[in-house]
Give the backbone structure.
Amino acid sequence: MSESRRVGIVLVSHSAQVAAAVAELARGLAGGGTDVPVAPAGGTEGGGLGTSAELISAAAASVDRGAGIAVLTDLGSAVLTVKALLAEGDELPDGTRLVDAPFVEGAVAAVVTAATGADLDAVEAAAAEAYSYRKV
């Protein structure tokens, strides 16, 4: 599958540095993941901590390849901001979905799965399954 039909992934964090680092980690663990469109959307426009509807919308537009977009978030207001954008109906590309998954592990699973050419349902399922990853 070409990059033009890959599921896009947006990583929404309260911190620009965290979003960018998780995107880099996920790409790296996916074997470079350069064919998966991943965009961090962290912090505010002024570089502070928080969430920005404008940054999220721009990130989603940048990864839209027509196969859907999985949005993963870190904490409360990030979730609320994405839900508000989805409710507005015209702020995010068609096929954008908020994925209930742990931020770091879910991002890695989503990017690895998207790299295989999987569809949005499979990317969402892989990310959500990361809740069951045991560490001990």
